[in-house]
Amino acid sequence: MTVANLGQIIKARRERMKINQENLAACAGISTKLLSDIECGRANPTFETMDLVAAALGVELEELLQPEQVIDLLPKNDLARYQQMLDRLPPFAQEMVIAGLEGAISQCLQVSKEW
């Protein structure tokens, strides 16, 4: 498991619980910046920090560290909703949105390779 994967798991759990970064960080006793860096794969958190974050999420640390854990970062119903929104746009706007999305995904992939 990479640091980026761990960050994605934490972010996905936090979002499923409908908790913002500020509240989760406060519950874990860490800074919002550190939580953001963890979620984005920019920080390599200590075991103690991860234990605090896991406890704030209401899970055991082992649940966050399981490599076989599958994350549904964007539930299928959200994908369908975004597709419907995209379909309502004129073709040139669809191309702009898709280009922006591809750029964002490429950046995320590049950052995750660095970790």
Spell out the helices and strands N to C. Answer: HHHHHHH
What would you say the CATH architecture of the largest domain is?
A: Orthogonal Bundle
Question: CATH superfamily assignment of the largest domain?
Answer: lambda repressor-like DNA-binding domains
Could you describe the largest sheet, including whether it forms a barrel?
A: none
Note the gap between the termini.
Answer: 11 Å
Strand content: under 5%
**Count of helical regions:** 7
Structural class: mainly alpha
What is the tally of beta strands?
A: 0
Regions with little confidence, pLDDT below 50 for 5+ residues: 67-73
> What's the overall average pLDDT, rounded?
83
- Computed over alpha carbons, the radius of gyration is 16 Å
Q: What's the domain count?
A: 2
Say what the CATH topology of the largest domain is. 434 Repressor (Amino-terminal Domain)
What fraction, in percent, of the residue positions are helical? over 70%
Shape: elongated
CATH class type of the largest domain: Mainly Alpha
Comma- or semicolon-separated keywords:
single chain; 115 residues; mainly alpha; 434 Repressor (Amino-terminal Domain); 7 helices; 71% helix
